């Protein structure tokens, strides 16, 4: 079935304008070519799925594999899934690259160590980290909320949770910085950072095996299921994917979220009034809405058809890559009333920001904790926070997977 003819031309994808505001292009695709074959900037051909119903179906469809070996142009596609250094075989065993039954086994093991309770017990530390970072710039009257806040918070949080000693955490921040800045860029620096991180994690796992602590890496080593344990390689890959999957996503949740609030003063004041009353309900629904409205993960990571299938009326061949465009699905008017309106109190908000199905975000409770704590604390401590400069000058990092701001300069009345 050819793309339907239409009056309005299709907006170009993957341009600078698209990175700045992809939503008009997504609206066009949803309407005119909801399962759309395109050539990605890397030269790889893939299907983009933009309607909510198709997206949800694709995310849960077991015929769509996460294993890149299923890609028809496999050798061509390797290393292009957005995860730096992924060519390395050891990294291929992480959750986002495997299918059942291996996925089921690894996910069950990690779920024993990384429980909602682990996260709940971590809440005071997240508050302490958040306040500590704000302390560093609160008296200055201005800050870059990405560099000074959204970027360091998740990396320190995950490091703490995993059990990376404080004195080593700045190394992690630098390695992660290299990956976020050059995600698909110069391979050399990224590959070196991945290598250093891997070597460090292998060594740390070794140490924790000798002297276990009260941390997630020790928990991963301890976790067992029917007598099965994670191998050291699997534990290292797991720690790596927790860092990797939980880092840039959370940076962008805080960055995109604060940006949306700064652009919607009535919503932000509504949230500030609720927080002042001690009402945290609007914070909880609000952070979900910020995820729906401009979520960090634009395209769910790659899937590959293991057999021919039909999706949204299009025939997808075995071996074809399929990209589910979460950001487009979450603005689908067939699913959400007034989808382009930010409504922090939105009910019936089953967005796909954390994915759906067996790969549903394992870190969602931690992301919610960090997102809610970060946004509430910023609004409480810097009540008059406002954008510094012209929003049109802001630059977006529009990767294929993530969408987020490079900088978010703000001003506020300095704390004395
Ligand atoms: C999976 C989003 C934070 C760990 C996913 C997926 C999405 C997602 C969309 C599914 C990808 C797919 O199906 O292809 C987010 C967002 C976050 C966030 C929007 C922040 C706002 C975190 C954090 C962690 C984490 C903080 C851990 C510390 C994971 C892991 C997976 C995953 C391990 C793979 C699960 C599996 O394949 O079974 N996330 N994530 N995420 N996320 Fe998150």
TrEMBL record:
<dbReference type="InterPro" id="IPR036396">
    <property type="entry name" value="Cyt_P450_sf"/>
</dbReference>
<dbReference type="InterPro" id="IPR002397">
    <property type="entry name" value="Cyt_P450_B"/>
</dbReference>
<comment type="similarity">
    <text>Belongs to the cytochrome P450 family.</text>
</comment>
<dbReference type="Pfam" id="PF00067">
    <property type="entry name" value="p450"/>
</dbReference>
<protein>
    <submittedName>
        <fullName>Cytochrome P450</fullName>
    </submittedName>
</protein>
<dbReference type="InterPro" id="IPR001128">
    <property type="entry name" value="Cyt_P450"/>
</dbReference>
């Amino acid at each position: 079935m050819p793309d339907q003819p239409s009056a309005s031309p299709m907006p170009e994808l993957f341009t600078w304008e698209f990175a700045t505001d992809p939503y008009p292009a997504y609206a066009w695709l949803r309407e005119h070519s909801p399962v759309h074959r395109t050539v990605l900037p890397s030269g790889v051909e893939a299907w983009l799925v933009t309607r909510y119903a198709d997206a949800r179906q694709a995310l849960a469809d077991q015929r769509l594999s996460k294993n890149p070996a299923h890609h028809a142009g496999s050798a061509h596609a390797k290393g292009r899934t957005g995860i730096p250094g992924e060519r390395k075989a050891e990294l291929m065993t992480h959750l986002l690259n495997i299918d059942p039954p291996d996925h089921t086994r690894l996910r069950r093991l990690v779920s024993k160590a990384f429980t909602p309770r682990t996260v709940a017990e971590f809440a005071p530390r997240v508050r302490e980290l958040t306040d500590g970072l704000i302390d560093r710039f609160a008296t200055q009257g201005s800050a870059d909320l990405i560099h000074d806040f959204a970027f360091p918070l998740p990396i320190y949080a995950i490091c703490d949770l995993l059990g990376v000693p404080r004195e080593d955490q700045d190394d992690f921040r630098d390695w992660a910085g290299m990956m976020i800045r050059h995600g698909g860029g110069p391979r050399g620096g990224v590959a070196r950072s991945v290598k250093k991180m891997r070597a460090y994690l292998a060594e740390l796992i070794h140490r924790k095996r000798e002297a276990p602590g009260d941390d997630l890496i020790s928990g991963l080593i301890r976790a067992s299921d029917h007598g099965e344990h994670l191998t050291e390689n699997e534990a290292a890959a797991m720690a790596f994917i927790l860092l990797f999957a939980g880092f840039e996503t959370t940076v962008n949740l805080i960055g995109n979220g604060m940006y949306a609030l700064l652009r919607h003063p009535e919503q932000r004041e509504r949230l500030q009034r609720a927080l002042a009353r001690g009402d945290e309900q609007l914070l909880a629904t609000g952070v979900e809405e910020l995820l729906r409205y401009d979520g960090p993960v634009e395209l769910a990571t790659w899937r590959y058809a293991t057999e021919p299938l039909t999706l949204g009326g299009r025939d997808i061949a075995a071996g074809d890559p399929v990209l589910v465009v979460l950001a487009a699905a979450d603005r689908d008017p067939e699913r959400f009333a007034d989808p382009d309106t930010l409504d922090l109190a939105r009910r019936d908000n089953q967005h796909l920001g954390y994915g759906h199905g067996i790969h549903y975000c394992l870190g969602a409770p931690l992301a919610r904790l960090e997102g809610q704590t970060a946004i509430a604390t910023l609004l409480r401590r810097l009540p008059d926070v406002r954008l510094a400069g012209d929003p049109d000058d802001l630059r977006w990092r529009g990767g294929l997977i993530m969408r987020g701001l490079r900088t978010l300069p703000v001003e506020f009345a300095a704390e004395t």
